[in-house]
């Protein structure tokens, strides 16, 4: 059996048993609430582990045409297609692979409704102009937001032709009461539309797999919403499914000291863990110890001056060659991997429940080369 200590870094390690822990919470929520859960592929689309995930969920939802194809091909069950902006070709490409097509605007819906086949239901994203989303960049309630139709812009006669509606207004929301308040707001604001549709997707960002989250209370809130409007409720979890299941393992390749001791590792947030940078959210290192006497910056090996994983402390001085485990690196990471600086791409592994380690993907120089060109102009 392959020993983890012999794997070349950098690599992601998906822990199947931790994934199943989250999936059991998904299952519990479904059973108690009657809601259906579709995985948001934009957060996590490492389809090599879909055999583990699919039995617990009802399908997938997407943010772009290739995710629709991937969900249809590798996950099965229900395939929801959503896009902020479809081209005509996009709609043609996804139509026969989708159970539901959700448009972001009334103009997209009007332009493409004739292309939606009989078997496929039509939904529209609505924007309740309220959210529990934290950072402005990811907040659909930010001023002039293009995501979904607001109440004042909604043409209620058009809405008669809809099968369902979608809302997405949470991000890592750990509070049932704030989620319930958002639903009360939606119920009042959009009561006419809600009485006409047969399903409502409440989007992602509800962090019900967080330790201690009161799943029963959430289930009750969802059930009441579903009863009040006589609709099938959906949630579209991404991060909640994948949280705390996956580590990024890196090696210290150098230690420099320009006023602060900085361990340089064989990975970069800009290439392999982009949200650390975009949202300015420092990573956690499993080997660190809160009161350790040896502080370090965990610096990346990209050329970007501010690219670092975190600042943290250790009980012992770090050594070149030592491995560090960047915790909780599953959601919004593998989907955003890029080849910036020509760094080595992390391999992707899964530790199965029985302890065996499966390699889902590994990359080499040719992969880097081929993302940029397949041939040179002189050979065409
Ligand atoms: C991002 C997104 C999701 C998933 O959000 P998580 O925070 O990962 O649960 C679901 N639905 C829509 C429309 C999204 O944009």
UniProtKB/TrEMBL annotation:
Enzyme nomenclature, EC number: 4.1.1.96
Keyword Phosphoprotein included in the entry's annotation: no
One GO CC term, this protein: cytoplasm
Reactions catalysed according to its record: carboxyspermidine + H(+) = spermidine + CO2; carboxynorspermidine + H(+) = norspermidine + CO2
TM regions (residue ranges): none
Leading EC class: lyase
Compartments where found: Cytoplasm
Binding-site list for substrate: 239, 275
Cofactor: pyridoxal 5'-phosphate
Domain of life according to the entry: Bacteria
GO MF: diaminopimelate decarboxylase activity
Assigned protein family: Belongs to the Orn/Lys/Arg decarboxylase class-II family. NspC subfamily.
Cited NCBIfam families: nspC
Subunit structure: Homodimer.
Protein name, UniProt field: Carboxynorspermidine/carboxyspermidine decarboxylase
Record organism: Motilimonas pumila
